[in-house]
Amino acid sequence: MRQQQPAKTTKAVTRPRLGVFKFASCDGCQLSVLNLEDELVALGQALDIVYFPEASSAMKAGPYDIVLVEGSITTSEDARRILNVREQARTLITIGACATAGGIQALRNWADVEAFKRAVYPSPQYIDSLGASTPISEHVRVDYELWGCPIDKGQLLRLLIDLLAGVQPRLPTQSVCLECKRQGHVCVMVARGLPCLGPVTRTGCGAICPGMGRDCYGCFGPAEGPSAGPGLPPNTASLASRFHHDLQLIPVEVLRRFRGINGHAKPFKDESHAWEDA
Amino acid sequence: MKPEPVLPSPNPYGLHAATIVEKVRESDDIDTLRLQLVDPAVRKSFRFQAGQFNMLYAFGVGEVAISIVSDPDEPQKLDHTIRAVGRVTKAIQRLGVGDRLGVRGPFGRGWPLEEARGQDVVLVTGGLGCAPVVGAIEYIFRRRQSYGAVKILHGVKSPQDLLFRERFEAWRRHPDTEVLLTSDRPDKAWHDHVGVVTELFEQVAIDPARTVALMCGPEIMMRIGAAVLVQRGLPATALHVSIERHMECGIGLCGHCQMGPYFLCKDGPVMRYDRVAALLGRAGV
Amino acid sequence: MTPITSPSASPGLLAKSSFQRFIDALMAGGYRVMGQRLCDGAVKWDDVRLVSDLPIGWRDAQEPGRYRLEPTDSGRFFEVVNGPESVKRFAFAPREPLLVIERSSKSFQATPTLPKGEKTALLGVRACDLAGLAVQDRVFLRDAYPDPYYRTRRADLFLVAVNCARALPTCFCASLNTGPKAQAGFDLALTELDDAFLIEAGSQAGRELMPRLPLAPAPEQFLAEAEAQAEACANSQTRRVETAQLPQALYDAHEHPRWDQVAARCLACGNCTMVCPTCFCHAVEDVPDLNGQRAEQARVWDSCFTQEHGYIHGKNIRPAVKDRYRMWLTHKLASWIDQFGTSGCVGCGRCITWCPVGIDLTEELPALLKKA
After folding, report:
1. Best to test chain B binding among C102, C114, C122, C147 (most B CBs inside 10 Å)
2. Residue A230: what pLDDT?
């Protein structure tokens, strides 16, 4: 690690205030922040981390210059709380599949939540839970979205570096395949017939799964479209057809490929619906 | 097997530091920066042609291709008029006098001003498209006797989009020179023409046999404008258009600026119209 | 094809049992020897030190969107024709740092980061990939601004070609005259026969290596056998690209309805461009550090299938998948000819095999050239 410039601390008074908030989630994305081990000291010098319960019990009130939001909205209390967080935030960034697309818990959106409550809890009437898990962007304006389950810490760092420098961040929207091929991995779909979602999934993960010989399950969400920029929704129909006709997945298996961690993201949701009655 | 030896050349990615010595706010999102190359030797040897561009680098952000708007006869002064629309241009906009940029260039083919000697010159521009022809106009006026009539036709969406008002007024005073301005959406103070720039063609006499036309502006404007001029008898080979595309390298290698068979960074940005007539307005080219 | 029969290149015969001595001679020449080795169900370039590192006992089966290795008892060393990687990455690196830019007070200093050379012998380069490298040499080295990064890496390569003895269903080099026999651009070229290799030199560096090999003079019958093998390989190719009407016919097909049909299948994932031995598009990215004191500028392989590729402020020149596929195919087979005097396609077939949905340009081209 490079030596930090001691002069930096003299700027402490003007450091942007960072808050990290959690909604329905597993904390894995917040851990990705803490996993920035090599950069954490410098990050703490560049930013005033004033609210981050996962890391520190010292919690200061807003407003915040930069807010990272983890988790989806699944309760009416959280639906109110996110409005307040937004009010306190100059720049709001969702971190991870839950906050950005509803997460794995959005599978409830196709199920009967009341039945779950009755099956799990002896007194279900005390459980306040909405029928659907929804991304933050369905509740408040979001400035930047980081995808992934969990997010890529390098991508988070780059986003923060750009924001600190006052530069408009650039988040790539291209497919996982580009990075997979740059790294020289053998395509698991072509060489092994695995139903890889890489061709329709947004890059950013570093092609970890294909690099380990397994098929991408789309945790970085749909490539290009639809939530950021003028991109197109990815051609999920063609890939799904290939899964079914050539890789011999039965319709429910095709459906499940798309209805996963980012099943609530529109292109994936639409594709899973197309296979419901197939 | 080794490829044939190629003579060593300076690294085309190498950046020259340049200081912003002057910054003129042209409008809400447009500034003109005057740059001075820091290295005296580089500054002394730097030459460019009107219509060429530089790659400007903002530290930690990246590069952007921007045409040089200043007079090619004063190459120590490098003016770039920049609209802050992308991440690099927005970063550049935040810089002030005394700050530094990186410069690579000049790149591309400029306006064919030597070929145009002895001819009338019609310059047709729209919006910020006037910037890349400023250097051409200065070049012509420094050699006024070598050229015939000069007609400068410039269109803007609304009066506040009109840059370089004083320059247009100054050019008006040159002999045998017409300057016609138009605005789509005029305000009360607007005394010039109202409408699109192609309507100005009706107001100037163009002798197709001895005219060279230079155009720069939105593609749709150039497409329609060129078609009208050709209809009026101007040979397509006497018409030149400056075309904008995404450029990452400036030297014909990154592939982004392709338009049909051309790399606009090295074959352009100024293209003879007959070569691109079929490509302008063609979807996806 | 006319066989190269210049006296200096007269081939020698190397017994298969002596092949280790060939690898050893390359290593003794200071080269890092790399060949296609079995990896994750295909072959990839990796270090080769022993004959047993080669994928002996295996061959590749390829078809649109599908690649499988299968066992073979042929005993040949180079029975696997190719994998997803051409030799492109050895000269045009997937990620190439260009500059380090360091801030000092108000100014900054940009220092080029030319790659550190490493003499590398690539063992088993196919004719199509040599042709692809020649195309990239044209792009990166023979224009107004020769690329120093490419040049540095390229100068370190020692290319050992292997003439193809079997063609895959996806191969079509014969129709483009780029193979199956290596014609130029190699240092040494091998022809694998059942019990021996014919070795010929194609460069000074290759000729210098020849005396260090235990070579016997090649009997006439072996030379004839090699020619016959190459001819049979060419004749066995089932796919072809017909270039007679190019480039104009493809320009004329700009509005052809076939583009919509292929766009309905195309994922715009960019795999075809990544595996293509000639695709050269790249993006330049800046990676600053947290203190804002240092940035690295690098170029990375890019693709005309991405949203960002055709973007200029406020609009995308190629918004739809159709636009992007059309851009790629038209560039590859048509405008490339206008730009560089050569086709951008060398007939390796990788874009067919490694397309996740099996789109086949040898099928698309004739469909596009047929009247709608």
Report:
1. C147
2. 59
| Pairwise CB contact (< 8 Å): B59 & C146 | no
DSSP labels, A124-150: GGG----SS-B-GGGTS--SEEE-SSS
Those chains having 3 or more beta-carbon pairs within 8 angstroms of chain B are: A, C
Q: Measure the CA dihedral B275/B276/B282/B283, to 10°.
A: 120
Domains of chain A: 6-164 (3.40.50.700), 176-274 (no CATH)
For residue B124, being part of any structural domain is answered with yes
Residue at a domain's end among B82, B107, B132: B107
Nearest to A39 by CA among A146, A155, A144: A155
CATH assignment of the domain containing B92: 2.40.30.10
**CATH code of the domain containing B194:** 3.40.50.80
- Residue A229's pLDDT is 52
C57: pLDDT strictly greater than 60: yes
Between the CA of residue B11 and those of C113, C146, C297, C299, what are the distances in Å? Answer: 10, 9, 14, 14
Q: Which pair of structure tokens corresponds to residue C240?
A: 């072809």
Both tokens of C195, joined, read 């019990």
Cβ-defined contact of B91 to A166 (cutoff 8 Å): yes
Interface test with chain A among C67, C104, C269, by most A beta carbons within 10 Å? C269
What average pLDDT does chain C have?
A: 94
B248: distance to nearest CA of chain A, Å? 15
DSSP 3-state of A175: strand
**Contacts C350 to A, Cβ<8 Å:** none
Whether the Cβ atoms of residue B247 and residue B257 lie closer than 8 Å to each other:
yes
Q: Does A158 touch chain C (CB under 8 A)?
A: yes
Q: Which residues 105-144 on chain B approach chain C with CB closer than 8 angstroms?
A: none
Between positions 227 and 246 of A, the ones with CB within 8 A of B are none
Q: Where does a domain end: B62, B82, B107? A: B107
Pairing of strands C12-15, B270-272: unpaired
Task: Indicate whether B138 and B103 sit together in one domain.
Answer: no
pLDDT at A277: 85
Inter-residue contact A158 to A169 (CB < 8 Å): yes
Interface membership of B256 toward C (CB under 8 Å): yes
Per-residue pLDDT of A203-255, as tens digits, reads 999 999 999 999 999 999 999 865 445 578 899 999 999 999 999 999 999 99
* Interface ipTM: 0.94
Tell me whether residue B267 is in a domain.
Answer: yes
Q: What is the mean pLDDT of residues B260-266?
A: 96
Residue C286's DSSP bridge partners are C297
Q: What is the DSSP letter of C342?
A: S
Cβ contact, residue pair C154, B98, below 8 Å: no
Each residue's pLDDT tens digit, C181-200: 999 999 999 999 999 999 99
Residue A3 confidence class, pLDDT cut points 50, 70, 90: very low
- B113 is a domain residue: no
Do B101 and B156 lie in a common domain?
no
- Are residues B267 and B162 part of one domain? yes
Find the closest chain A residue to B62 by CA distance.
Answer: A167
Q: Please tell me whether residue C214 adopts helix, strand or coil conformation.
A: coil
Residues B96-109 have a mean pLDDT of: 95
Q: Is residue A7 pLDDT above 60, yes or no?
A: no
- Domain extent, residue B258, equals 120-276
Residues B77 and B159 in one domain: no
Per-residue model confidence as pLDDT tens digits over B230-262: 999 999 999 999 999 999 999 999 999 999 999
